User: What shape does this take?
Amino acid sequence: MSVPSSPDASSTGSPPSATANHVAIAPGSTAKLRGPITVAVLSIVTLGIYVLFWWYFINREMADYGRARSAKELGDSPATSVLALFPGGLVVVPAIWTTVTTFQRIQAAQRLNGQTPINGWLGFVLVLVFSPAFYGYMQSGLNSAWRATADAS
Assistant: This one.
């Protein structure tokens, strides 16, 4: 005897619901709460390949949130951000530019939620001393912004 299952979001056409590690940030869009230490460790273990995927996803989440809040400062093209990181990093300047602008987007997302943004000077020191810690710091800032978004809704 089979027990009928409840309909899920994909079969009913409704947007995905928030789960333990996902937060609804806009209609039909979620952001993932990632562990800062996990981000740092994966950036080392995968020799930076994880960073390219992570960079795309965080910039896409911020762009989705920015569109929902009509906030241009959260960016609009995650693919451009990734291309600036690599292969743009071979020229150096585009990688520096996308690093600074993505950090500023995270700060803007926190300000939109009434939070104190992550410290730019600490981020600068981390990126110079140990970049995986910098990625973890950025993710911790995003996690706080996404949690505040979830608490506000």
